[in-house]
Amino acid sequence: MFFKYLAFPVIKIKKEKKNNDDLRLESARTFDEIDKYADAWNLLALNAPQQHPVLTHSWISAYLKSSLKEGESWFCIFAFDNYELVGILPLLVRESRFLGNKYLLLSTPNYPHTRWVDFLFKEKYGGRVVQLFASYLNGLRPRIIRLTMSHVLCNSPTFDILAEGIHGIYSYSYPNGYASIIPVEGSFNDYKKRLSKKLTGNLRRSNNSLKKLENYSVIVIEDGKDALEDLLSFASIEQSGWKGKNGTAIKYKFWKFFEELVQNMGKNGWLEWYFLETENKRIAGYLTIPFGRSAFILKTGYNEEYRFLSPGSFLTEKLIEHIFSTGKYDVINFFTDFEWLLRWNVERKPYYRLVIAFNNPLSFFSTRLPYIFYSKFTLVRSIRISLYRAIRNISGK
Asked: pLDDT tens across 80-108, in order?
């Protein structure tokens, strides 16, 4: 097993200046070891610059308990200032062989519903935490080829820290999808005026059709008291459509993860359900995660028997209207870049794949060198395109 190679349970950075306190590092590879920091971990995520629910213990532990692939193991590293938790990085591990030697490929969790993992740190400790983690990882045996982070949001403070330079690591990034975001600014009516006439017309027709049915209502559940019961209700809605037919509904493929997740998030008050109910039956649903000043929209589904009513669009409108009305949020984040979100006048914020190389020959040749060539090629291509456009403008063609 990989864990016998984790030879450094505690690392310290020596104090060089009077205002630079020691940081202490611990590694953990069992659930008992990470669970004892659950409350401090969740609080750190809630107050971190990213303020993203995927960075919480509640989310990461649900992933680690349910979603590891064959051949993967995991460990977490923690940074402390005395007894205060100031930094965390959960890592997945795969072993690789080259010329008879073992090497490690590291990544942050990267699977549907858990792709947005980043360095987590208390803001004023960012550079020191990343440096501490880099020093630790460079000291591991077998040596590490690379660390890959799949979806890091463009405004992450990690990019500023890496741009300033961290000893012992080299970072490269490139675009990898988008988050779809609605800023909660002004009133809902102001927001609705920015929607297309086609969409507002469809919403009006859907509203009129629903009024003809008996007892239609929108239900908002803001506590996690019946999290599993509500998850079952949502899963039944979702599997009624194409996801049920092709076997990708959460009830078939991701049940254990969502079972863990909704219970964990519900205990902390980070779980909300939106259901459209008519004729004593729930026909559309949203699973949302309220976290700090953001409302994260994780899953949506509707019963295709009622497709003629456009229940998904109707419930989306009511969800956005409710979030505007609470005054608790600055942004609605849909995580993904599905095309249907564009009609809701979302803003696209790019994600980047972040790749980190380490101080060893294999990491240089397999990771650093290809990225150096790629960046040089991209730069030359950009210069050629700019020159071509400049010549065309000058010539008037």
From this structure: 999 999 999 999 999 988 777 888 999 99
Question: What is the CATH classification number for the domain harbouring 157?
Answer: 3.40.630
Q: Specify whether the CB–CB gap between 104 and 146 falls below 8 A.
A: no
Q: Same domain for 167 and 291?
A: no
- Own/partner pairs for 56-61, CB < 8 Å, 24+ apart? 56/268, 56/270, 58/261, 58/264, 58/265, 58/267, 58/268, 58/270, 59/114, 59/261, 59/264, 59/265, 60/90, 60/109, 60/114, 60/117, 61/31, 61/34, 61/35, 61/260, 61/264
Give this prediction's pTM. Answer: 0.87
Specify whether the backbone of 274 is left (phi greater than 0), alpha (psi in -120 to 50) or beta.
beta
Q: Does residue 356 form part of some domain? A: yes
Which of 16-30, 176-190, 197-211 bottoms out in mean pLDDT, i.e. has the lowest? 16-30
Q: Give me the domain span that covers residue 278.
A: 185-329
